[in-house]
């Protein structure tokens, strides 16, 4: 046993991944969280990791060798205050990862406002399919692996590179710790209004990340995105590979089906490779294009990457089909930003269905709660036929204004039971119902499926 680490905030996707990696390395791992819930709790318990509810000083007695502090922890938290008063050794999750896992690795990082989880899952699967046995830490659970993190058997490591801050004692973005050799920047928009005052502040952090990529490294990004171009204009010392969907770039994807279920990838003078998969949406095509370009940087040829993507099974909570009851399909999606909401709905709409597209949305992220995106939310749902907005407790502004401005039929709900009953009663065979939240949404997913079953 290498020692004992205790993780504060262990059930977050990132910190849960740290726990799995530490356990795999031979550490004794325990952890605390305010809300211990699946799917992360199931992964952790299966790995023999003890989970404790809440944040109590007693959780740190006897003292672990190191406390790994999640970025949701703040001063005033009982466990944090005890840790500091007792002089316990502590570090952040990103720093622990950098020092214990990433050192000496070829790190491939997926960054950007949207698509990080899906892109990193795609890339990890491509490398696995190619026999490269990568390690990875992904902010979700890829269906092809069944777990969010592993150490891997080679020097290749895929990481989801988040721009959120590191910890209460380290306000740099998480990703500056990772030092990637291959960096994907999927997109760049304003988000995380609780820690960034404006887009320029986010661009500054992204440029810190760009500075860490070696001259022989590769930066992969979409062509013609102003926020990314402005960031790179501050200085870029690495190979730059541009991507585009149905436009000119170093790496191009061309849709062969409008919904993105079939497309081809072109690079250089080589023949195109065709991907025919079970996923949809231009955003997923863009994600796949970046993953193929990243895989090629470590020696995986595009035809092999294309074969892998044809078998890619996706990620839990990324447009995950939970079930179909009486012809009503229910999806779970992590979308919590206007752009993500719009692209997810557009992707489902392009698939084509004789029924309606119904969205249930919980604006739960800090940026949503603060109202920074309120002016874009109504238009973001234009691809749906009907929208149910759920008003979370403690939100400082009313979603009624979004309902009033909606281009499609919209209703406001503040009670989960009433919302489930209303959706179940209105559902018709052929409908696609997508539940959007970056949290548990009060267990609405299982409750809606049960309500639909009861009406059969």
UniProtKB/TrEMBL annotation:
All residue ranges annotated as the Mur ligase central domain in the record: 111-295
Sorted UniProt keywords: ATP-binding, Cell cycle, Cell division, Cell shape, Cell wall biogenesis/degradation, Ligase, Magnesium, Nucleotide-binding, Peptidoglycan synthesis
Molecular functions (GO terms): ATP binding; UDP-N-acetylmuramate-L-alanyl-gamma-D-glutamyl-meso-2,6-diaminoheptanedioate ligase activity
Residues binding ATP: 112-118
Catalytic activity: UDP-N-acetyl-alpha-D-muramate + L-alanyl-gamma-D-glutamyl-meso-2,6-diaminopimelate + ATP = UDP-N-acetyl-alpha-D-muramoyl-L-alanyl-gamma-D-glutamyl-meso-2,6-diaminopimelate + ADP + phosphate + H(+)
Boundaries of every Mur ligase N-terminal catalytic domain copy: 4-101
Cofactor: Mg(2+)
InterPro entries, per database record: Mpl, Mur-like_cat_sf, Mur_ligase_C, Mur_ligase_C_dom_sf, Mur_ligase_cen, Mur_ligase_N, MurCDEF_pg_biosynth
Keyword Methyltransferase: no
Superkingdom of this protein's organism: Bacteria
The Mur ligase C-terminal domain, residue ranges: 317-439
Protein name per Swiss-Prot or TrEMBL: UDP-N-acetylmuramate--L-alanyl-gamma-D-glutamyl-meso-2,6-diaminoheptandioate ligase
Organism: Seongchinamella unica
Top-level taxonomy: Bacteria, Pseudomonadati, Pseudomonadota, Gammaproteobacteria, Cellvibrionales
Gene that encodes it: mpl
């Amino acid at each position: 046993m290498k020692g004992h680490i205790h993780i504060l905030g262990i059930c977050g996707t990132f910190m849960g991944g740290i726990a799995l990696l530490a356990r795999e390395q031979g550490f004794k791992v325990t952890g605390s969280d305010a809300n211990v819930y699946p799917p992360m709790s199931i992964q952790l318990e299966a790995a023999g990791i003890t989970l404790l509810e809440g944040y109590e000083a007693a959780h740190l007695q006897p003292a672990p060798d190191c406390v790994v502090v999640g970025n949701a922890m703040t001063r005033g938290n009982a466990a944090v205050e005890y840790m500091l008063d007792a002089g316990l050794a502590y570090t952040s999750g990103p720093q622990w990862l950098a020092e214990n896992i990433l050192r000496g690795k070829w790190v491939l990082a997926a960054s950007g406002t949207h698509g990080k989880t899906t892109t990193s899952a795609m890339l990890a699967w491509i490398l696995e399919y190619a026999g490269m046995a990568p390690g990875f830490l992904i902010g979700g659970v890829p269906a092809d692996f069944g777990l969010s993190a592993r150490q891997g058997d080679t020097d290749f490591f895929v990481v989801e590179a988040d721009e959120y801050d590191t910890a209460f004692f380290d306000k740099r973005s998480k990703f500056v710790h990772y030092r990637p050799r291959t960096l994907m920047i999927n997109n760049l928009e304003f988000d995380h209004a609780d820690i960034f005052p404006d887009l320029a502040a986010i661009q500054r952090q992204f440029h810190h990340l760009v500075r860490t990529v070696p001259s022989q490294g590769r930066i992969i990004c979409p062509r013609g995105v102003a926020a990314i171009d402005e960031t790179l204009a501050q200085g870029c010392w690495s190979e730059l590979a541009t991507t585009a969907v149905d436009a000119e770039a170093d790496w191009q994807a061309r849709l062969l089906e409008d919904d993105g279920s079939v497309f081809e990838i072109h690079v250089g003078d080589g023949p195109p490779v065709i991907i025919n998969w079970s996923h949809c949406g231009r955003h997923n095509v863009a994600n796949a294009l970046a993953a193929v370009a990243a895989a090629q940087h470590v020696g995986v040829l595009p035809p092999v990457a294309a074969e892998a993507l044809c078998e890619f099974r996706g990620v839990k909570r990324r447009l995950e089909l939970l079930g179909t009851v009486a012809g009503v399909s229910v999806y779970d999606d992590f979308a919590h930003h206007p752009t993500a909401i719009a692209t997810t709905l557009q992707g489902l709409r392009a698939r084509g269905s004789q029924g309606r597209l119904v969205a249930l949305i919980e604006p739960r992220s800090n940026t949503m709660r603060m109202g920074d995106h309120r002016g874009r939310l109504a238009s973001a749902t234009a691809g749906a036929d009907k929208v149910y907005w759920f008003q979370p407790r403690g939100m400082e502004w009313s979603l009624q204004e979004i309902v009033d401005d909606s281009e499609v039929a919209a209703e406001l709900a503040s009670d989960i039971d009433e919302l489930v009953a209303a959706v179940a009663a209105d559902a018709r065979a052929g409908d696609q119902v997508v539940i959007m939240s970056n949290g548990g949404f009060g267990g609405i997913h299982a409750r809606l499926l049960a309500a639909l079953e009861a009406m059969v």
